[in-house]
Amino acid sequence: MAAVPAVGATLKPNTDPAAAWRNPGAGQNDPRLYCLAHAILAPNPHNRQPWLVSLEGEDTIKFYFDTSRRLPATDPYDRQLAIGCGAFLEILSIAAAEIGYETQINLFPMGEPQPYLDDKPMAHIRFVKGGTKDPLYALITQRRSNKEAYDPKKPVRAEALQELLTMEPSDKLTLAGTLSGDAQCESLRQLTIQAYRREIETPVALKESIDLMRIGKAEIAKYRDGIDLDFPGIGAMQAMGLITREKMMTPGTTAYQQGLEQYDPLAKSASGYVWLISNSKDRFAELAAGRAYARLNLRATSLGIAMHPMSQALQEYAEMGTIKAETEKVVGLAPDKCLQMLARIGYGGKVSPSPRRGLAEHLRT
Question: What's the number of domains the chain is made of?
Fold first, then answer.
């Protein structure tokens, strides 16, 4: 492999929140950097981008969870963040295959972290010549989490759902789904509405999300992570004090009420739901679920199907307990398994990519 280029010379930070999505890895001589530039486009909870890497020798990456990017209120055991790390590994591997490499991934070389993720390596990744090109590679920069309302006049058909749910045989995961009109779908629709409202009504969970909101273009460009909030006129509304974090946190205000009702039309417009169940509840299963979800999202992109994770109902904090149990019941979850991901599907319009901090921000020096 080529020598690792000097970070300062080739990986300058870019304040354009969409820059990472354009020609990722262009100009990189080190295959690892090329692939990492794709991996940082992976879906992840609250757009925390909790990934750190170091380049070792000429063919290896050490991959770490960034412990400064936890979600202690809504993801108290780091399960969802681990899923985001699995998605990172899958996109990395797809990109590697595209340029003639196979990734040999040794997970948790210093032991599985419990009950929380820690700062020890999550994986040692070795690049070796080989691999088979994956057609999903072409979809990496087109993939989105579409958080808009979907077209109610264009339902997802059963054949399209079946094609979406087609996955490589696995003894670790089950992928399933349901479409509008089915009792199971209507139950999940109501539960996802209830779960989002429960999160808003739980002050510590709401504050976590509001603290991670990037309101307006200036904040989005400054942080390039979190929950971006931008629409025509938002600057004027901020100037008039109509949108403030304090008002979003305060019941009875217009801003709070709008937040409370925000997911109602999204859930109601869903043409169906898909979910991932793992056969175990360990960290290996969480990473496997993340890898499977990344592929699911890419397959949806290839089919023109919009997808949006609505996993509030799966969160492990006390206030969500009843809704979580009911959601697990609706999907028929067995006691020894784990419902790892839940997402709505439909057909939606074109949306912008989520902000990314850029590769330089993920390299440990």
Answer: 2
| 60 belongs to a structural domain | yes
CATH number for the domain that contains residue 292: 3.40.109.10
Rounded Cα–Cα distance for residues 80 and 72 (Å): 11
| Chunked mean pLDDT (size 10), the chain, 365 residues | 37 82 96 98 98 98 98 98 98 98 98 98 98 96 98 97 89 95 98 98 98 96 96 90 94 95 97 98 97 98 98 98 98 97 98 97 92
b/e map 323-346, b = 16+ CB within 10 Å: bbebbbebbebeeebbbbbbbbbb
Task: Return the pLDDT at 13.
Answer: 61
Q: Are residues 77 and 107 in the same domain?
A: yes
Containing domain of residue 28, as a range? 7-143+353-362
Give the separation between CA 310 and CA 317, rounded to whole angstroms: 16
**pTM of the predicted structure, to 2 decimals:** 0.95
According to the model, what pLDDT value does residue 4 have? 34
- What gap in Å lies between CA 228 and CA 230, rounded to an integer? 6
- 329 and 358 in a single domain? The answer is no
358 and 332 belong to one structural domain: no
Nearest to 101 by CA among 165, 30, 46: 30
